[in-house]
Amino acid sequence: MSANFHDVNHCQCERLAPALNRLLESCIEIKTTNTKILAEYLCRSPATIRTQFQRILILMDVYCRYEALRKAEEKGWVRCGCRQSGESGYTDTK
User: Fold this and answer.
1) Above 70 in pLDDT, residue 86?
2) 44 — alpha (psi -120 to 50), left (phi > 0) or beta?
3) Which of 40, 65, 68, 74 is the most exposed place for a label (fewest CB within 10 A)?
């Protein structure tokens, strides 16, 4: 029984906070990782968006926003976008 308890806790630890998940979902919805565009879309400051992306990169152990989106889609944390393999469909990150 303790093995199942450990597995449940492990799964909960892997999930992102709702605000971070919403940021990744927004990237897919509006097809950009641009800080200013996302800040306006989510009614947040650009500094908040940058901080949230830094947290995402650390938590997911990835090096860029695109890799975070790919990994989140793989894990089923966000819905898969309409993009095809090899085509990012996202604009620049700054």
Assistant:
1) no
2) beta
3) 74
Place of tokens 């790919």: 70
Buried b or exposed e, range 47-83, using 16+ CB within 10 angstroms: ebbeebbeebeeebebeebeebbebbbeeebbeebee
Q: Which domains does the chain have, with CATH numbers?
A: 18-74 (1.10.10)
Q: Cα separations (Å) of 87 from 15, 60, 70, 91? A: 26, 22, 12, 11
pTM of the model: 0.71
